[in-house]
Amino acid sequence: MLTEERRKKILELLDEHNVVKSQDLMNRLQASESTIRRDLQELEDDGHLKRVHGGATKMQFLDDEPAFSEKSFKNIQQKQAIAKLASQEIDDGDIIYLDAGTTTIELIPYLKDIVVTVVTNSVGLAAKLVEHQINTIVLGGRIKLKTDAVIGSQAMAQLSQYRFDKAFVGTNGISEKTGYTTPDPEEAALKRLAIQQSEKAFILADYSKFNQTTFVQITKLSEAIILTDRCPTELYTDIAKQTTIKEVSV
């Protein structure tokens, strides 16, 4: 395999899994340890990845914030499976918080047969909840157009008055060291408060969010249960020491 082909394949694997091991790359690409080491070093020098012990992780800038429309097309099957898993945590009569996000929005169709009241910080989610005839309260405040999230002091003040049985919150990153993170300080503050105001909190995140860290910490891992399609094997033990992980097959 030519050098350029091999490096392109490495980046494709990183895009798919976020983390790659040198040994796996050696086996997949039929290349020597020194060749893979050199490939990873040069890809890191070019800003494409970050080398870690035993492999590499995907390069991500701390303040990167994909738009809602961009995220909504990614990992749809995984998000739907996670949403179905989340619905099994909800009981008749619950008051729940639904965070703005492309995974939380997939939870809405599963709520139509449950007697539930939903508080959300998303106009888009609120419209879909009303469409399904679900009792809904939408927070007031400034709408961040890129993510469809209502944020700001008005939303925080309103949210602080409520208590929830369960909160279902999205995240941009999950790391054993930095916990749950997101690029925007105002969104992080709202997510953090929703978790604090809930008897039980769940983070809904597909596999691509693991081993990622963005600008602002929402809270530490122990403050919420992770609902996911797959936690990477190499991270599972360390993360499971801090919180519960529930996986669903896709």
How many DSSP-defined strands?
A: 15
Major sheet characteristics:
7 strands, parallel
Termini separation (Å)?
32 Å
Please give the order of strands in the largest beta sheet: 6-5-4-9-12-14-15
Q: How big a fraction of the residues is strand?
A: 25-35%
Shape: elongated
Alpha-beta content class = alpha/beta
Low-pLDDT stretches are none
Tally the helices: 9
Radius of gyration: 19 Å
Helix-residue proportion: 25-40%
Mean pLDDT: 91
* Pattern of helices and strands: HEHHEEHHEEHEEEHEEEHEEEHE
What brief labels describe this structure?
15 strands, alpha/beta, 3-stranded antiparallel beta sheet, 250 residues
Task: Describe this protein's structure.
35% of the residues lie in helices and 25% in strands. The radius of gyration is 19 Å and the shape is elongated. It contains 9 helices and 15 strands. The strands form 4 sheets. Strands 6-5-4-9-12-14-15 form a 7-stranded parallel sheet, with helices on both faces. Strands 1-3-2 form a 3-stranded antiparallel sheet. Strand 10 (173-175) and strand 11 form a beta hairpin. The longest helix has 15 residues, at 3-17. The chain is of the alpha/beta class.
